[in-house]
Amino acid sequence: MSTAITVRAPAKINLHLGVGAPREDGFHPLATVYQAIGLYDDLEVVAAPGWRVEMEVADHVSAEALPTRSGDNIIDRAARLLVELHGVEVHGHVHVRKEIPIAGGLAGGSADAAAALVALDRFWDLGTSDDDLLRLAADLGSDVPFSLIGGTALGTGRGEIVESVPDTGTWWWVVVPSSEGMSTPAVYRHFDELSPEAPAEPSSAGDVLEALACGDVERLAEVMRNDLEMAACDLRPELAELIVNGEEAGALRGMVTGSGPTVVFLCEDGPHAREVAGALRDQGTLVTLVVNGPVAGAHLVETL
Ligand code: C5P
């Protein structure tokens, strides 16, 4: 048995986010292309009596939206699902170091849930099958299965049905988080208000999949699409301004990711991304993170 385990899980961005009219269960049918990027939360679990979860945030992460009540955060829920499946007792102290902005459209909470599933499965020596892990992940949230598999993937259903797709590129991004998070349900609700006639089927991700398969950055810049962008920018007009500023600074394309408010800028390569980030900072943008993708999903980085 290990005495400590650390699992790292990445943030995601959406290169295509096609959204259809709401289903009967209230969720929206999606056709989305996820990419895992080099921005991570690390979750460590150590042997200790009882159960405790604590979080620490990096300087660029605003702690305001951190869950305050213990016992019902997404890590507690992940632990409970494993306990129910295997009939074991919950124990251990969990410490999460968050680099992924909270409520930013980057699936930070989903990364923590995926990291908790992988870490606790190993720590409690449960041997959960991949299929069961994916099923529990889907119960925890629409983006959690992707946080497990990482890389680049097509997401369908409400986003929880994931399938890896060919991606021959290394893509460079400038990620600009906002100091204040945004509620995902509120952005979906605003999408419904703005698009009462949305078609039942989400728009196809075909063009983005093609650009990824050939590693064509100019083409990817042209075809990226996020159907939630209009709703996010309507709620936060400064996001549209930020996108224009980044594109004027030379980014190939700027787009809101997920339900926002984080904006990502696609760049030609690493040096170009650093140049765009520098220009944005000169214009007064406080936080710019230069990262690349795709990277691996939730994975073990240390066992003691
Ligand atoms: O699945 P998850 O817990 O991440 O979803 C959070 C909220 O986002 C849902 O309660 C719903 O309001 C909205 N959502 C949606 N359609 C999706 C995914 C999420 O309407 N496909």
Q: What does the model show?
A:
The chain has 304 residues and is of the alpha+beta class. Helices cover 34% and strands 27% of the residues. It has ten helices and twelve strands. It has helices spanning 74-86, 108-123, 130-140, 144-149, 184-194, 206-214, 217-223, 229-235, 238-248, 270-282, and strands at residues 4-19, 30-46, 51-57, 92-98, 152-156, 161-164, 171-176, 225-226, 253-256, 263-267, 289-293, 299-303. Strands 1, 2, 3, 4, 5, 6, 8 and 12 form an eight-stranded mixed beta sheet that branches. The chain has a four-stranded antiparallel beta sheet with strand order 9-10-7-11, sandwiched between helices. β9 (253-256) and β10 form a beta hairpin. α2 (108-123) runs antiparallel to α3 (130-140). The structure holds cytidine-5'-monophosphate. Residues 27-28, 30, 141-143, 158-159, 184-185, 188 line the site of cytidine-5'-monophosphate.
Q: Which features does this protein show?
A:
binds cytidine-5'-monophosphate; 10 helices; 12 strands; eight-stranded mixed sheet; alpha+beta; globular
Q: How large is the count of helical segments? A: 10
How many runs of DSSP E, i.e. beta strands?
Answer: 12
H/E element string? EEEHEHHHEEEHHHEHHEEHEE
Give a quick account of the main beta sheet: strands, pairing sense, barrel closure.
Answer: 8 strands, mixed
- Mind telling me the C-alpha Rg? 19 Å
Average pLDDT taken over every residue? 96
N-end to C-end Cα span: 9 Å
Structural class: alpha+beta
What binds here, in terms of ligands, is: cytidine-5'-monophosphate
Weakly predicted, low-confidence segments? none
What is the percent of helical residues?
25-40%
Shape: globular
Strand content: 25-35%
